[in-house]
Amino acid sequence: MNQAAQATQPNVLLEAKGIVKVFGSGESEVRPLKGVDLKLRAGELTLLMGPSGSGKTTLLSILGCILSPTEGALHLAGYSTEGLDAEGLANLRRKHVGFVFQGYNLFPTMTASENVMLALDVRAKPVVDPPGHAVDALSAVGLAHRAKAFPAKLSGGEKQRVAIARALAGKPSVILADEPTAALDAENGRAVMALLSEVAKDPNRAVLAVTHDHRTLVYADRIIRIEDGRIVSEECPDKSKPRDNAEAAANDH
Amino acid sequence: MQAQITAGAQGTGADPAGKPKLVKMAAKLAYRNLFHDRLSLAVTLIGIVFSVVLVAVQCGLYIGSERMIAAMLDQSDGDLWVVPFGTKSFDDPSLLIGHEKYAVLSTPGVAGAEELVVGFSAWRKPKGGTTAVLLIGSDHENGTLKPWNIVDGSVAELEAPASVAVDDTYFTDLGVNGLGDSAEVNNSRVRVGAVTHAIRSFTTLPYVFTSLQRARTLLGAGANQASYTLVKLAPGADLETVRADLSKRLQDREVLTQGEFRKRSVDYWLFQTGAGAALIAGAALGMIVGVVIVAQTLYASTKDHLNEFATLRALGASAGYIHKVILIQALMSAVLGYGVGMILSMLVIWASKDTTLLIVMTPGLALLLFALTIGMCVIAAISAIFKVTRIDPAGVFSR
To answer: Which chain A residues touch B394 with a CB distance below 8 Å?
Structure first.
C-alpha cells in the first residue's frame, strides 16, 4: 500500500469524488463516466440502477479497483487509489473488496468449499483451519451441506450463494455485486437479495449491487440512479412502506 | 441468518486452538485445470513423451557412439600411445615405421610397451561373399588389450593356429554361426576360437581379434612393425618428460596421451564426419518439437480457462499467483511426460540391446533429460503467461 491511510467519514467505507473515465482518444473517444460522486456506508445495501450504457459497469470496475479513473479520487477503506499500478490495485481489492458476479464466475473444476478456499489463497493471509473456514462461510449462506458439490451440480441460486460465501470469506470492507439476480428466477433472486441485505447489516461492511431488477428495491437501504455517466438521484427508501415495483420501474427509466 | 453470516464472516474455523496457516490452492487449481480436459492433457503428454524419447534416443546414441569409438582405448591400460603421424582415430590405422617398441623400452621412465597391429582386412564368408573387417592383433598373454565379454571359447584358444575371436552381433555379416566356424581373412583360413558379445564398432566394420603375430602375417606387416605402441610409465615418472623424450627419439610419429588419442578418435568420427552433429541436431529437433507441442496445448488450455484467470485477477490475485498456476500446470505435465517418456526410452534401449546400435542411458543422462523436460515445459508456458498477463479483469462483469 503506497498511500498513507486517509481518514474519511467514520461510516463511509468507500468514497468516489469527481470520477471521470475516458476510453480511447480523438474521434473514437468514449466517456462513460462524466463526474461521479458516490459514498458507500457501513451497514448499508446500496443499489446502483440505471439504463444500459449509463456507466454502471465502468463505475463498478472503478469502485472495485479494477480500472483506474481518468480523473477523480477514490478512497477505499481509508486508502487512496491514486498512483497505484495494476498490482497495487490488485493488492487493495484482494484486501478490501469482495465481488459477486452476474455469471457467478465459480471455478468449475473446484467444489463449493474449494472455490471459497481459492479466494482465501488469493488473499495470502494465514487462516486457522482453512477447510473449516470455508465451510463456515458456506454455512453463512446456508450451503454447508453442498460444500463438496461442484458448480455443475448446483442450481443458479446455490451458485450465487457460493459466490457470496466466496466474497464473504475474505472479510472484505466492501462487497460489489454485479447484477446478482439477473440469472436467477424470482424465488432465488429474492433469496440472494435477502442474503446480501443480511450481509450488509455488518457494521464493518458496505454492499453495492448493480441491478436492473426492480424486485430488489425492497431490500435497498439506499438507491442511486445513474444516467449518461452522471448520478441523477440518490434516495434512502423507507423500508417499512411497501413499494410499487411498476412505479419504481417508471421512475428508473 | 444474521448470526450465521457473522460467524462466516469472522471465519472462526473448526479448530480455534490451531495455528493460522496459508491456504494453498494454486497446485490444486493447476491439477484440476490439467486433468479437466483429458484430450488436451493427452496431446500435451504425447508431445512431451515424443520429445523425451527422441532426445533420450539421440543422446543415448551419442553416448553409445562415443563408447563404441573409444572401446579399444578404454579397454587398454596405458599412459601414452605412439601412433603413425596424422592418425585420425583408432579405427583409421596404418603401420608405424618399425622398432618403436625397443626405442620406447629404452626410454627412461618407461615401465613397459605393448604393440597393437590393427588393419582393414577382407573377410570371406564360408558360403561365399566378402565383407570388410577391422583386424586387431594384440599380445593376449602380457598385453592389456584382449577380447572381453567372451561368451564362448576363451582367450587362450586364440593362441591356436588360425584362431580368431568375433562378436556375435556380427554373425550375420560374417556368415558364421559360432565357435569352430571357418572363414578366410586376406585369403588365409581362420577359425572362430572365441565369441564375444556386444563389442560393437561405430564404423559398422566387425572387429576380429587375433594374436599379434597372426595379425602381422595377415596384414603383411614386418616382424617389428605395429600400428600402435602403447606405453606404460614407471611409477613416479613424469608423463610430459617421457613424452618429450619419446617424441625426440621417434621422429615422424606422434606421441599422444590416452585422453588425447581418445578425444581425437571421438572428435573425428562424431564431428569431422558429421555423425555427431546429426545426433545433436536430432536431439535439438526433438526439444523444439516438444516445446512447440507443449506451448500449443498449454496456450489452448489457458485460453479455455481465461475467464477463470480473469476472475482470479478480479478477486485480487497477483500476476505472480496466476503465473504460478500456469507454471505448476507445466511442471506437472513435465513430470508426467518425463515418466512415461523414460519408460518408453528404456523399452527402446532394451529392444536395441542385441543390434549393432548402442543406445546408452546413464544416471547423468536421465537427470539431464529431466532438467531439459522441465526447462522445455517452462519455456512452453511463456506464451500462456503472456496471454494471461494481458487479461482485463474488467471483462468478468456482465457476462
So the answer is: 57, 61, 66-67
